[in-house]
Structures are given as C-alpha cells and as structure tokens.
Target: Molybdopterin molybdenumtransferase
Amino acid sequence: MHNGKVYLDCMPRQEAEALWQNALAAAGYFARLPAEEIAVEQALGRVTECAVYAVQSVPHYNGAAMDGIAVRAEDTFGATERQPKKLRVLPAGGPILPGTCCIVDTGDVLPPGANAVVMVEDVHFAEDYAEIAAAAAPWQHVRIIGEDIVQGEMIVPERHVIGPADIAALLAAGLERIKVIAKPRVAIIPTGTEIVASRRELAPGRILDINSPMLAAAVASWGAQPVRRKIVRDDRAALAQAVSASLDDCDMVITIAGTSAGTEDYTYSVMSELGQVLVHGVAIKPGKPVVLAVCRGKPVIGLPGYPVSAMLTAELFVRPVLLARQGLPTTPPKQVEAKLARQLFSTIGVEEYVRLSLGNVQGRIVAAPLARGAGLISSLTRARGLMAIPAESDGLAAGTAITVNLCCPELELERQILAVGSHDLALDLLGMHLRRHGGHILSCANVGSMGGIMAIRNNEAHLAGIHLLDDETGEYNLPFVRRLLAGHKCMVVHLARREQGLLVAPGNPKGIRSLADLTQPGIMYINRQRGSGTRMLLDYELRRLGIAAGQIQGYEKEVATHMAVAASIAGGAADAGLGIRAAAQALGLDFIPIANEQYDLILNFADDDERREEIIAVLRSDGYRREVEALGGYDASRAGTVLWVD
Ligand SMILES: Nc1nc2c(c(=O)[nH]1)N[C@H]1C(S)=C(S)[C@@H](COP(=O)(O)OP(=O)(O)OC[C@H]3O[C@@H](n4cnc5c(N)ncnc54)[C@H](O)[C@@H]3O)O[C@H]1N2
Ligand code: MOO
Model:
C-alpha cells in the first residue's frame, strides 16, 4: 500500500532554507543558547558564551627580562667605557640601596629599590663589585606588572572559537574555568531494513551504514555533539518512537533515508505527526527528497539515503543551523575561478551540484567534473571543488568560466597534478611517490588514451597516460602525438612496457585460449570504452584475425578501467575481457597474454615547472620501477626516458 504522498513539490533551495530557519527562529531556537562551564584546558574549539576578562594582570609582578644585575638606573647615569660605574654586589633578593646591585636571572622578581636590569654581557665583575660601562635607562629589561594584560581587560570576546593561544592567555590571566555554549546534541537515526551496522552482516541486498559515521563526523566538525542511534527498520511506529525519544534529549534530529516516495518511506508522515513539515522536496540534485521539519521547537531533518545526497543536504541545511545555534556566522567557502574541462548537461529547474578535480595547467585553473551518481562516495573523497549549475541552465559548454567552491580552505592548487587519459595501476603508485617526495597530489580521471591526448591539447590536464597502437606503422603512441599535438609544448616520457591479455575467471572454467575463442557460444565479453588504448588494441587484433565485432557477445558492454573489467569477471557478469596482467593479479584472475604494449606519459607543464622534474625523477628511481614491476606484467626498466619534446 502506498503512504499517500506520491510526488514531491520542488522548492528552490534558498526558499526552503529561509522557510526552515525562520520557523526555527520563531520557535526561539537561536535565542537562549544553553551554556556550560568547562576547564580552560579542555576548551579548544569551543565557543565562548560571553566575553572573558582577566582576573589578574600579566605579568603579575615586576620581573627581570634578562639575565644580569638589578640596579637603580640613576646609579648608572654617566657611566662610560673610560669611567665605568662600580656597584657593590649584594646577596640575591636586595633590597637595592644607592650604589649597590644584585644578580638576577630572567623571570626573577625585581628586588625592592631596583628599577632596571643590565645584561650580564655588559657587566665586568671584579671582587665584590660589578662595573658597567654604559648608563641603564629606567625600566630597561624589566617586565612590568600588566605589561601584557591588565586585570579587567578583555581576553576573548563573546562567541569566539577558542584556539591554542587563547587557552594560554586565559590561564595566564587567572581563569581556570570558562562558560562556553553547550555543544548542540544531534541525534543521527539511520533507517532501512536493508541497512546493517557491521561488515560481518553484509550480504547481497544488505547495505553497510556508512552515512551515520560520515554525518557524525560532519556534525562534530561543525561544533556539535553527535549522538548515534540504532538502525531503525522500515516500520512507521519504530521510526516515530526513535524520533520522539531523540527529541527528548537532543537539540536536532537527523534521520537517514526513507525520504522519497517509496512504499516504505515514512519520514514525511512521522515528522508531520510529531510537528510541522515545512519542506518536502527541494529543487536540487542530488538531494531532492530532503524533508525539513520543526518538531517541539527543534529542527528535524530527513536526509536522502544515498551518501552523496545525504552529505550535500547536510552541508546545505544542517551546517548553517548548527552554526547559528552556537551563535557563529556561516562563513562562505573560499572560491576560485576556473575553466570547465568538459561539457556538462543539467536539468532546467533544478540546481545541480557537481564535484570537481582542480589544477593549475599552464597558468589557468582547470576544473574537471567527477562522475555524478548520488551513490558514488568516491566522488566525495576525490573532490577538490564543488560547483552549482544554476536552476535556469540546461548545461555548460566545455571551456566555460565557472566559480568553484573549494572543498578545503587550505587546498594548494599548485600542488595538484591532473592526470587524464588511460588508467594504469602504475599511475596510482606514481601518485603515492609524488605525495611522499614533493607533497604533490595526483588526481586521475580515466577517459582513455584519446581523451587524454585531447585534454592535453586543450590544456585541461598536466599528464596523460597513453597506449595507442598505430595501425600503419605498428608503432606505439608517437604517431598520434606527432599528428594531434604538433606545435603544442609538451613532452612524452616512457613509463613501461606491459602485458595485455584476456582476463578470465580463476582456473579458466570456459577454456578460453585466444581472441578467436571469444566467438564461441556461451562466452560473455566485457569491453573497454571507445577511445581507450585497450579497445583500439582489441579492434586491431580482431581485424587482423578477420573477426567481426558482431560475432562477440557483450562487445557493446563498456566499462572505463582495467579494474572495472577485472571486477566484472570476478563478479561473474562476464567471462572474459581484455586488460593488463596487473588487474588480473589484483583480483586473483587467470591471464592469457595477447600483446606487449608500450605505455607512455605525455607531460604538459611549463619548462620551469618543478612538477615535471619531480615526475621524471620518480619514474627514474629504482624504488618506483621495482614497485611497478611487482604489480605483475610490467617492464619498467626504461621508465622516465624522454621520447619526444616539442
Ligand atoms: N518514485 C520516486 N523514487 C525516488 C525518488 C522520487 O522522487 N520518486 N527520489 C529518488 C532520489 S532523488 C533519491 S535521493 C532517493 C532517496 O531515497 P530515500 O531517502 O528514500 O532513501 P532509500 O531509498 O531508503 O535509500 C537510498 C539508497 O541509499 C542507501 N542507504 C540508505 N541509508 C544508508 C546508510 N545509512 N548508509 C549507506 N547507504 C544508505 C539505501 O540502501 C539505498 O541504496 O530516492 C530516489 N527514488
Ligand atoms: O536527488 Mo537524489 O538525491 O538524486 O540522488
């Protein structure tokens, strides 16, 4: 049976946000913020409830700021190299009478009567006298009471986030405990009969609860206290009970999944029973079915179940409310202007969020869109930037100037290296070495060898891995580079020779021995995408053997990487696919060698860019070559040889 609410109204994001926040403000949610008193030493990252004032001055006594002697400045007036002043040295502690001094160390209390310190380097000691050859100014080298902080002075203002130095200043100013805003307690309720809490319970159709830990970490990073609840199965009463109990002891309730229009999606109806639903459905993608409600004066939000949707809607709606609840402003993310590397389509009427790789290529910041599925958690971890395609747009052409929100404010664009082209496991190793040595971060987009050459030509990548066999000459790569990149300043360096072959299930149950066997009935092939070097190799070999594509079952089924081919075979979706030996080795598959091909890198950097030298140095290092060969099926002995420069 259906639960009634079959379609969602889609409200513009700003309107939804305003509606929810205004309702919360009207309920007094952002006023009367609860506070608590905590030890100053535990206060890192906490927000002050009110301004904090010094209860004692710093320093709280007059003290020596240097090692030397404490003197009466007036006793030293007129001292010169020729006519030094002689002062009798008294035991430590003084009091200093006219014509006397005593030895002090940095930090010692200045003895009574003294009003200056002369550094030990400027004193000549003789018997029980100290001789000084220059006059001391009154209060020189003395730390005077209150010189740093005066009693009653403000140390930190209200609504201030306590940092490490604040802790020192507060302690110095005599405070041991301070009042801070209580961390908002945020209940996180995962829902769904298919959701399990641990890997041990995983089975087909079961999904590991990765959203709760992600959201708990996110709300903690926004200053709140996450309170994780048990998984609630798809049961209306159980969900109502869990939300109601959380409203008793938390300041905000987040439910995960069950937001859309499915038969077991109860979020909307439970929230309307417990309070008022202000929004169900926002014109954003992903994240459309988000539910925004106010129940018993507290925010309750139903996040869509797909991880990317859940994280985006949490950032858009949860974060500003939690910051406001702590009296903190929402600082906008840092932005950069960039050139969009690839065309992007979008639906009119929906604001679409796209995650991006970023890098500075030949003086211009390039943004390469990552894959867009709402379930692709890897698109969150790979993203360096986020952009929103406005609701009124149906897409953006490649090359469009766009504004990108940086995913992390410390992102150093000059450290990013964008790799586009054919995927190879050796690139992941290259990334690891670059990170270890120069702190450079390699981001890879797998678009095949031809896609890589085009990206270099358009200055949209720093590096492209290619393995393209020229039909006419039988030569790898350079014929294509000469033809397509003539006049473009770039360099081609060799990476490795590697074995390509057929990946088949362990033990080769179908008895496949060669490409010709792919035409046998009952054999399902899995192909690589057009434009990839592996696909070109297959087509070249098929032509040579006189086999037509139509004779191979599964020829039209394409995936984008060697590992995806291997995974399809390991999972039983296909019987054979062309790929590198390393991919077979990684997933324990059998391998039937077909060809030995040349894998090279095109490097697209200005001549003085240190990143290019860094890459070549890694390629030439014994450590890197050894690790590549350990992947299986590689000869990396000539890695780093320069093959072509334009
Ligand atoms: N007829 C319609 N179908 C759907 C609509 C719609 O408007 N009409 N919206 C689609 C959109 S958009 C999204 S987003 C999803 C939202 O789905 P729900 O919030 O109802 O979530 P579920 O369907 O239960 O789950 C979606 C997906 O996420 C997985 N999941 C759920 N919880 C977790 C968790 N804690 N950790 C990891 N993964 C989780 C769940 O297993 C599903 O695979 O609905 C579309 N359908
Ligand atoms: O809007 Mo859903 O969030 O597409 O994935």
In short: The pocket of LQZAQKY5 (ligand 1) is lined by residues 8, 190, 192, 194-195, 207, 209-212, 256-262, 265, 286, 288-289, 304-307, 309, 374 (CB under 6 Å). The two ends are 68 Å apart (CA to CA). The chain has five domains: 13-31+183-325, 35-58+147-181, 63-143, 335-411, 437-645.
